[in-house]
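Task: encode each sequence below as structure tokens.

Item 1
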Amino acid sequence: MEKLIEITNMNVKLNNRKVLDNISLTFFKGVSVFITGSASSGKTTFFREIAKRQDRKIKKGVILEDTIIEPGTVRDVLTQDDDYNNVADVIAFLGLDKVWLSKCCTLSYENMTKLLIAKYLIQKVDILFIDRRLQFLKEKERKRIIEYINKRQVTLVYSSSNIEDSLYFPYMVVLDKGIVAIEGKTMQVLAEEKLLKRLGIGLPFIIDLSIQLKLYGLVDKVYSDKRKLGKYLWK
């Protein structure tokens, strides 16, 4: 697999307190990653450090929880680059045609998030880091956008405390007190139920339900898709 970004021994101190402790992670092309952890795990600090990094070999986008665009209109922001391929598709998919002439400073938090995503998709970044912004969207819309970003062959690295979102990602990283507590394929990480609970992280509802049903012999495996689980139970 092609490496996009390799982080080695990232350390960050704030007020003489170590917030990130020797974080080492590698992000590969085409492998989107879900990052989670408790409120003090270091997720946002990690994304802020990523934003500071200068990467010449790859095109990177970073959307933090407080990232905004103030000057100009939506049209000004999305038509300032030379590459106009698929601009209309991105704009229509994210519903930004409805606020096309609106000033950026007047946009809702949801539309600002969509504008930032559209900007990076139009720029054709290789990898897009989003810290928590999508968790403020409705579940259906969140899933739709995640799938769309992947469809456009952009590697998505997304941070959220909403464990349900992990099911949209093939790879998962759990931070705890500034270190990588566990990482791996999402279903393998979620199988570490005891460790996750010790870290204060629950399981997605469908995973937890499947585990309980499996204990009673009602299903043959752990399901991550509610439709497949329902189909198995009703067959």
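Item 2
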Amino acid sequence: MRLSCRRYAILTLAAVCGSALAQDAHRLREHRGEMALTQARVLSKHGLHRRALAALTHAARDCPALASQSVALAFELGRSSRQGKSISMPEPVSAAFERARDTGQPVMLFLARPTCGLCRFTQQNLKDPKLASSLRHIIKVDLRIDAQENRPLLNQLSAKKSMRMLPFIFYLSPEEEIIDYTSGGQEAAQLAAKFKSVLTQTLGATDSKLRDRFAKEVEKAHALVDNGKCGDAMKAYQAVGKLGIVGEPAKKVQKIIQAIELIGQAHLTHCQNALRASAYDKCVPGLLILESDFAGTRIAGRAKAELERVKAAPKGKEALERWTGAVAGKAAASASEPESAPPVSNPVSERQASSMLSMAKAFLTNKRADLARKHLGQLIAKYPNTKAAREATSIVKSLK
């Protein structure tokens, strides 16, 4: 009987501890989700809509309770990204400009007709190997001039330039301003000269190797900031800035660096306000996340200094020890979890999958099928046994 009581007590204690750890893990996800929402708002204010949408995806994934706020902000981003557009665009062109704003690359609109001999002649010349290095940095969109969905775009372009002989080739900046324009068949040499001029105006470099390196390093930095690793991202962007690229791409990099600093400051201010109110369970996890995610920056140093203040208070020290354990436990669990482990359907998976599905539907409503398709694919891969995954599969089929 004594052994049974002892065993019961141990099991009860384990259940209580397990429940406390689960609560800490849930609250930690809430903190990360709230930080991702703040990150999305700051990035959107700087016009970095693609980075903001990536942050929203993390917010919805890390904390399903914030899914509704994430979807609402996604709608807001969709509206603001369409405001002030000078050209009415079909979806492929809209997606091209979204990418252009992210990379700083120019957009090339190739307007042609399948039966046009000069169009086929120019398309064949575009396959010249000598043009490949330049074309890697130009976002080319092929448009049929006789397609009804392209009519509004054609009307607006024809009002800006005289369109007499096919094919019509427009070179536009990420801000949708016309940089250059040609009409009629183009030899490879003519295309090469035009590409050089356009790339010099937009990317600020004529050296193709330098442009390649710049593009690769920027993509790496983007991936870091999308995953919340703001400290590593800032260092990566600063390294990119030293490559010698000037013009719009350099301005874009500086804009992101400024946005990251504002994101860190916003989180830090929130934590400092909570610390003044002795709300340790609100400030400690935020400070720990700042110290980790902004490592190597001034923000991380200030977060560490605030944690020293927390240690000075008995209740603060207790909260710090508990939250440090929760953060370490989460990191250890993530490290030990095999990447290829098959996902299991459970209430948490169902909620997270449902959040991702809501986000994808929001993208579809905002006519962003490219982003919707990407998130639906991630949902199906991560939560294949959920109800949301089954619905996502049917939506993906309908998009093809």
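Check on item 2: The first helix runs from residue 2 to 45. The domain at 91-203 is CATH 3.40.30.10 (Glutaredoxin).
End of task.
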